Amino acid sequence: MINELRIAIVACCCAGSLAAANAAEPLKVDTSGVKAKILYEAVISGGHLPELKGKYKLRVTEITIGPGGHVGEHNHLGPGIRQMTVGEMEYIMPDKTSRYRAGDFFFESGDISHRVNNKSGEPCTHLLFEILPADLPGASLILPRDNPAR
């Protein structure tokens, strides 16, 4: 009985250590020719929405995708508005493909898998205006959660 208890305790400790190690590993989305630069971020103070105070931040990130570059299938940790500023990109969702050009705006909920291609001979750039967890230190880009088998 004591031996079985020891085995159970060791198994739980090993499983916990493995889960912690995997949680610390960054998830890698397939990209090529992509440069990202965080331009601005600020924790939401609440204002007229006190329930948001300190829980979320607004972030603006500039993404440039070189000619022939791509961002593989991914989700984002939060929703946001996107604005194309330079060039053109192909935006592929499970049910439709769109082409966005400089000046276009669109909304991403964050929880729908999509991928992006720059099929042109010129770089394309877009801005991400996102609402993210306040304590998020890095990229909002994550491997797909809605369709992990793809």
What would you say this structure looks like, in words?
Strands 1, 2, 3, 4, 5, 6, 7, 8 and 9 form a nine-stranded antiparallel β-sheet that branches. The protein has one domain: Jelly Rolls, CATH 2.60.120. It is globular, with a radius of gyration of 20 Å. It has one helix spanning 2-24; strands spanning 31-43, 56-76, 80-86, 88-92, 97-101, 105-108, 114-117, 124-133, 141-142. It has 150 residues and is α+β, with helices and mostly antiparallel strands. The chain has one helix and nine strands; from the N terminus they run H-E-E-E-E-E-E-E-E-E.
Count of distinct strands: 9
Low-confidence stretches: 1-25
Query: What number of domains?
Result: 1
Q: What is the arithmetic mean of pLDDT?
A: 83
CATH third-level topology: Jelly Rolls
CATH architecture: Sandwich
Radius of gyration: 20 Å
- Strand-and-helix sequence, N→C? HEEEEEEEEE
CATH superfamily: Jelly Rolls
Structural class comes to alpha+beta
Would you state the CATH class? Mainly Beta
Total helical segments: 1
Strand percentage:
over 45%
Q: Cα distance, first to last residue?
A: 45 Å
Keywords:
single chain; 150 residues; alpha+beta; Jelly Rolls; 1 helix; disordered N terminus
Explain briefly what this protein structure is:
With 150 residues, the protein is α+β, with helices and mostly antiparallel strands. It has one helix spanning 2-24; strands at residues 31-43, 56-76, 80-86, 88-92, 97-101, 105-108, 114-117, 124-133, 141-142. The longest helix is centred in the N-terminal third of the chain and has 23 residues, at 2-24.
